Amino acid sequence: MPEKNDGIFFISVLSRRQEVSFPRAWWKKIWGKPNQGIISEKISLCRLAMYRSQGLLPGKRIFSPIIPMDGQRGMTIGPLLYKGHIAWENRWSLEAFPEFCRRVYQMEKRLNRNHIAYNLNPGYLHKDGVFLASRFRDFHKIYIGQGIYLSWQMQFIGKNTKMLAWSFPEYGKTDFILFFEQLRGKFQTNKGTLKRE
User: Fold this and answer.
1) The pLDDT of residue 81 is above 50
2) Tell me: the pLDDT tens digits for 165-187?
3) Is the pTM of this model over 0.70?
4) Distances from the Cα of 172 to the Cαs of 84, 103, 165, in angstroms?
5) pLDDT value at residue 125
6) Which of 44, 75, 106, 149 would staple 141 via disulfide (CB 3.0–4.6 Å)?
7) How far is the C-alpha of 88 from the C-alpha of 56, rounded, in Å?
8) Nearest to 26, CA basis, from 48, 54, 46
9) Which residues have C-beta within 8 Å of that of residue 88, sequence separation ≥ 6?
């Protein structure tokens, strides 16, 4: 559990397909506006979730690269998966994290109404590392209340980043390490903490 109750919130976005073509009839339903005459549009599913995250929290968002996941995890969950992250630059109080989780899970439910396979996990970057929330318990997870378990995925030691024995393998990829190191820099330079909206 983080020692000090503030950090940067993010969402981990996992999708089963890289992109999808949206017909005209879906456009307004998903984006909330007409498609301006376009019959269909191909868009990365991760990018779609990133777009729809607008309004979950105030402040500027930062987006990670979207990478294909390979190896054992992709084989056990299903077909080739794609993963990306959305983060907000502001530092937030941990008191606000359960409410943030609730909003993320609501967003996941809305996105999956359109038969698009999404898994959204809220996360939290603290001075000690990167923590990922889940609704499922496991031996390495800490229960923080309201049905939420916290898993330590990356540990910051000095200027270095260390993976843990239970870390998802994709967090060891260079693109994600660089993304979270960028967030760590934002955390260190942004001294203010927002308690709640």
Assistant:
1) yes
2) 888 888 888 999 999 999 999 88
3) yes
4) 14, 28, 11
5) 94
6) 149
7) 10
8) 48
9) 8, 9, 10, 57, 58, 59, 60, 61, 62
In three-state form (DSSP H/G/I as H, E/B as E, the rest C), the secondary structure along the chain is CCCCCEEEEEEEEEECCCEEEEEHHHHHHHHCCCCCCCCEEEEEHHHHHHHHCCCCCCCCEEECCCEEECCHHHHHHCCCEEEEEEEEEEEEEHHHHHHHHHHHHHHHHHHHCCCCCEEEEEEEEECCEEEEEECCCCCCCEEEECCEEEEEEEEEECCEEEECCCCCHHHHCHHHHHHHHHHHHHHHHCCCCECCC
Six-digit token string for 150: 């916290």
Domain ranges of the chain: 6-15+47-189
Return the closest-CA partner of residue 41 out of 12, 13, 21: 21
Calculate the average pLDDT of the chain: 78
Q: How far apart are CA 150 and CA 64, in angstroms?
A: 21
User: Are the C-beta atoms of 67 and 173 separated by less than 8 Å?
Assistant: yes
pLDDT score of 21: 57
Tokens describing residue 116: 């698009």
User: CA-CA distances (angstroms) from residue 87 to 12, 47, 61, 158?
Assistant: 9, 13, 5, 22
User: Tokens standing for 31?
Assistant: 């984006």
Tokens of 44: 């990365």
Task: Retrieve residue 94's tokens.
Answer: 């941990």
Contact 58, 106 (CB under 8 A): no
